[in-house]
């Protein structure tokens, strides 16, 4: 089936990378058909309402909605109505008999100043096929997605429930420190690792537990470690609050208490001397001494990450510098992807996706 995926627009590259990594993790074969603004169209080898499709939707953090694409046309009325008229709605509706229609303008569009007239015209076209409008609990919702140049006629598969991320926002957790990664970004970088259900995901700098929490939400078995006792206890409180099973230990990331080649993915946010984590972490307060200490820490931690990671598996590492690929050169990693995003005017985070050769 052809899927039209509506990205959130919060980042230019992360949503697409997250989607493709999740498709690969779930063994869903696909072909990329087109990219139009925030609409990403793929031909996916998956059935509507299948378990795999529902699992894909549950994983995604930077996607708004997923649709089954029924057709695509220009912006003229007659083209759109002709597309709706010719669509095989019986195959889409199945045994359902009721429907609703909504319209979503991805960009400003002057051709349709009267949205209600457009909805009525499309609704009447579908009703002539023998279906009944039900705006409260329709069996199927049809969506008109308008870009600057095209209209996508779709049937909604699922709307991503953003409340799941709001409920896990840092301030809503029992243990909180400033500067942590927000839940949607944490979910996206977990997905970049390609982790699968029941596989082992390690965060050797787990802090308050934001990354391991999102890893657990996609079904991974979680191991989190931190050198600070208060962080481990705080992360345990957070995991218990959300009833998430995990294993959290106090450990130095340079000497992890794990067997070689024992974990399926590593996802972590490297410490970089933020005021909230310097105390008690061993990171010096002096700026130059801190930079030297962190450089040694990163190198030793990446060597250890390589040791515990299984061959062919991925490490997704967040840092405050784009230099991590250079640091890991010669360690036995393949560079698979890079992203950056601006947190605020004085902080940009760099996401590096590495694969153990």
Protein described:
This protein has 357 residues and is of the alpha/beta class. It folds into two domains: 2-159, VC0802-like; 164-356, Rossmann fold (3-Layer(aba) Sandwich), CATH 3.40.50. It is elongated. The two termini are 34 Å apart. Residues 275-280 have low confidence and may be disordered. Strands 2-3-1-4-8-7-5-6 form an eight-stranded mixed β-sheet. Strands 11-10-9-12-13-15-14 form a seven-stranded mixed β-sheet. Helices cover 32% and strands 31% of the residues. The chain has helices at 14-25, 51-59, 77-86, 89-93, 115-127, 163-166, 183-192, 210-217, 229-241, 275-278, 287-308, 324-327, and strands spanning 2-7, 30-36, 39-44, 63-73, 98-105, 132-133, 140-146, 151-159, 200-203, 221-226, 247-250, 263-269, 309-319, 333-344, 347-356.
- CATH structural architecture of the largest domain: 3-Layer(aba) Sandwich
| Structural class designation | alpha/beta
Order of helices and strands: EHEEHEHHEHEEEHHEHEHEEHHEHEE
Q: What's the alpha carbon Rg, rounded to whole Å?
A: 23 Å
CATH fold-level label of the largest domain: Rossmann fold
The low-pLDDT segments are 275-280
Topology:
Elements: E1 2-7, H1 14-25, E2 30-36, E3 39-44, H2 51-59, E4 63-73, H3 77-86, H4 89-93, E5 98-105, H5 115-127, E6 132-133, E7 140-146, E8 151-159, H6 163-166, H7 183-192, E9 200-203, H8 210-217, E10 221-226, H9 229-241, E11 247-250, E12 263-269, H10 275-278, H11 287-308, E13 309-319, H12 324-327, E14 333-344, E15 347-356
Parallel strand pairs: 5-6, 5-7, 9-10, 9-12, 10-11, 12-13
Antiparallel strand pairs: 1-3, 1-4, 2-3, 4-8, 7-8, 13-15, 14-15
Helix pairs in contact: 1-7, 3-5, 7-8
């Amino acid at each position: 089936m052809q899927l039209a995926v509506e990205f959130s627009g919060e980042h230019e590259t992360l949503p697409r990378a997250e989607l493709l990594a999740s498709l690969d993790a779930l063994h869903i074969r696909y072909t990329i058909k087109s990219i139009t603004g925030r609409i990403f169209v793929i031909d996916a080898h998956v059935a509507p309402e299948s378990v795999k499709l529902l699992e894909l939707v549950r994983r995604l953090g930077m996607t708004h909605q997923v649709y089954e694409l029924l057709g695509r046309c220009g912006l003229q009325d007659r083209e759109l109505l002709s597309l709706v008229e010719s669509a095989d709605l019986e195959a889409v509706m199945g045994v359902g008999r009721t429907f609703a229609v909504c319209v979503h303008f991805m960009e400003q569009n002057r051709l349709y100043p009267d949205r209600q007239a457009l909805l009525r015209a499309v609704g009447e076209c579908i009703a002539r096929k023998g279906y009944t409008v039900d705006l409260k609990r329709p069996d199927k919702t049809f969506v008109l997605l308008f870009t600057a140049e095209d209209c996508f006629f779709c049937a909604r598969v699922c709307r991503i429930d953003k409340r799941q991320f709001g409920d896990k926002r840092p301030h809503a957790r029992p243990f909180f420190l400033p500067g942590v990664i927000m839940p949607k970004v944490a979910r996206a970088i977990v997905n970049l690792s390609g982790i699968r259900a029941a596989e082992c995901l390690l965060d050797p700098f787990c802090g308050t537990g934001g990354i391991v929490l999102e890893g657990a939400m996609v079904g991974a078995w979680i191991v989190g470690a931190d050198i600070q006792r208060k962080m481990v206890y705080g992360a345990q409180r957070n995991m218990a609050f959300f009833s998430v099973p995990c294993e959290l230990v106090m450990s130095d990331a340079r000497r992890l208490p794990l067997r070689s080649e024992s974990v399926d993915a590593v996802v972590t946010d490297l410490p970089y001397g933020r005021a909230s984590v310097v105390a008690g972490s061993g990171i010096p307060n002096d700026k130059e001494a801190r930079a030297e200490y962190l450089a040694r820490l990163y190198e030793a931690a990446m060597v250890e990450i390589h040791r515990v990671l299984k061959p062919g598996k991925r490490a997704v590492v967040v840092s405050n510098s784009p230099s991590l690929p250079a640091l890991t050169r010669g360690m036995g990693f393949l560079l698979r992807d890079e992203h950056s995003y601006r947190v605020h005017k004085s902080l940009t985070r760099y996401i590096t996706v590495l694969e153990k050769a």
